Amino acid sequence: MSTPSDPTVRIEPAVASTDTDRDAVLVTENLTKRFGGLTAVDSVDFTVDEGELRCLIGPNGAGKSTLLELITGQLSPTAGRVYFDGIDLTDVPSHERIDAGLSVKFQSPHIYEALTVAQNLQIPLQRTDRDDIRSAAHETLEEVGLAGRADAPAGDLSHGQQQRLEIGMATTLEPTLMLLDEPVAGMSVEETASVADLIRSLNDDGMTFVVIEHDMDFVRKISDQVTVLNQGSIFRQGAIEEIEADEAVQRIYLGEDA
Ligand SMILES: Nc1ncnc2c1ncn2[C@@H]1O[C@H](COP(=O)(O)OP(=O)(O)OP(=O)(O)O)[C@@H](O)[C@H]1O
């Protein structure tokens, strides 16, 4: 568990979930979100262990983004709890969850187009206690394959390069868990392959991931374990081969009742 770098951040009381496994990084219990009469996330018990690279898939409107926003704190649940490293974060604001080791990259890039690539990386690094911000930014540029573009305005990068830059910005905080919402949407085959390589290499180095994705070729490249969400509930969980061969999963994607 990362220690909050900001001394003003207090995450207490530290209430361990009864269902938290020793190696579980993320546990949701009975997590529920209603929008009026619509239950977007319905009593979800979702566990991710340390070191996992879990993909979260499901048809449009299944509740994937809502679940992610409940985990990051962008949304408050109607019911249920969110535990991170055994600590109850349900009522902790989202910026404090970042300090606790939870990073998120939303679907559209959130970068500063007028700043250079290196300057963009320096922004999150200022949140850390590192005193070698310039060299840390360059290390990350190497990692995300953008070393040659350090001085280019971020707005000049391709869509795929911007996504890699933003993943790099999130990794500078050395999160315990990285959440990515459709990281390869709108990318070329080559760009998708480079993001897949980056995620795999960060995961090989020990970073835990939850990745929401529709592109099944990409899911196959990066993940062995997949969770399928349908109508707000966990529908299936298992190895990618089993999930793809599951006729009930195929039916929900066709909009048929399973
Ligand atoms: N702020 C909101 N207000 C009302 N309804 C919402 C809100 N956000 C999401 N919903 C509804 O909740 C359900 C789940 O939406 P969500 O975006 O989480 O699904 P998703 O699985 O991420 O879909 P997609 O793959 O299309 O992005 C949908 O029916 C959606 O219309």
From TrEMBL:
Q: Name one GO cellular component term.
A: plasma membrane
- SUPFAM superfamilies membership: P-loop containing nucleoside triphosphate hydrolases (SSF52540)
Q: Which InterPro entries match?
A: AAA+_ATPase, ABC_AA/LPS_Transport, ABC_transporter-like_ATP-bd, ABC_transporter-like_CS, P-loop_NTPase
One GO molecular function term?
ATP binding
Gene3D superfamilies named in the record = P-loop containing nucleotide triphosphate hydrolases
Positions of the ABC transporter domain: 26-256
The name of this protein is: Amino acid/amide ABC transporter ATP-binding protein 1, HAAT family
Instruction: Supply the source organism for this entry.
Output: Natrinema salaciae
